[in-house]
# Entry
Amino acid sequence: MPLADGLAPAPRGGLAPLTDPFGRAITYVRVSVTDRCDFRCVYCMSEDMHFLPKADILSLEELDRLCSAFVALGTRKLRLTGGEPLVRRNIMELIRSLGRHVRSGALDELTLTTNGSQLARHADDLRAAGVRRINVSVDTLDAGRFQSITRWGRLPQVLEGLEAAKQAGLEVKINAVALKGVNDDELDGMLAWCGEQGFDLTLIEVMPLGDMDGNGGGAVREEQFLSLRDVRADLEKRWTLLDSDYRTGGPARYVTVKETGRRLGFITPLTHNFCESCNRVRVTCTGTLYMCLGQEDAADLRAPLRAADNDGPLIQAIREAITRKPQGHDFIIDRRRGPAVGRHMSVTGG
Ligand code: SAM
Ligand code: SF4
# Structure
């Protein structure tokens, strides 16, 4: 059944906003809307991924109820991710429906992280639905390398999507995972290109996720780990990086590149220096709430979602889970033990 404005109205009645035991207001929720993807990036998925049965995945209506419950509990920013969010069938119905929270002023931002492959056909609709900014993952501007990293991706299709996003008036931030021996020689070129295109750029340290669940991934280990501290020091030999106060409450630190006027972010998830300001939680496409990207503790929101048509049990489950949000995370890359957390990014969402 198509989603329409008001089909799953946000619970009303002045609900107390979510605050965790450390006094952090939870205002940012990332929701994975699918575990599927049209790419098979080496650091994220194996080539022959086994995807979840459809019955396990939240329906679009359930995703709408879930997101709306968080909005009622004080979420100001909602990011849809995946897998690849734009390959989920009828995803625009959900995005259009969630746009009502932007129009009502309840949400400051409705956004998504995408690989860009489907942007050409969705950019205008996204803008019309209330999306203003998107993150697009592009690790390289070399078509051959792009194919090696994504296995199934084609760079020209993504570039076409980016052009459509620009034409539609969407602000774009490029996410690039920095990989030693893979794309570290073209970070200057990407910085310059982003400047020309009017895009911000965020570099991401590769995370040790997805190696331990027997479902592939793991093509990237510590050999390809590139410290962004070193990357920054190297970039500073050629670019003027001006410190910036800009913060999102997450693991990114930003500078402004004087030569381009654009923002450059560094996401170093293996460091602990951002946990004290953490304002976010993640929900998988099966409705599992992870209170911390680096910890295994989780809460099932699907059962309370499916238990009742009203959102009482769901809201209670969210509140209970937030009381368990840990103070900080536990990432360790250890050559002998492997990564501390074995989830795929495509399951948790990036
Ligand atoms: N498919 C969309 C995309 O690629 O943008 C959204 C989901 S993807 C899991 C979200 C982000 O996670 C992407 O920017 C991707 O590069 C990043 N990512 C995936 N696996 C990662 C890993 N092991 N370490 C660091 N970043 C990773
Ligand atoms: Fe797909 Fe994004 Fe994972 Fe690449 S990083 S395989 S595009 S979900």
Q: What stands out?
A: The pocket of S-adenosylmethionine (ligand 1) is lined by residues 37, 43-44, 81-82, 84, 113-115, 137, 175, 177, 204, 206-207, 209, 345-346, 350 (CB under 6 Å). DSSP finds ten helices and twelve strands in the chain. The two ends are 29 Å apart (CA to CA). Residues 1-12, 211-216, 332-340 have pLDDT under 50 and may be disordered.
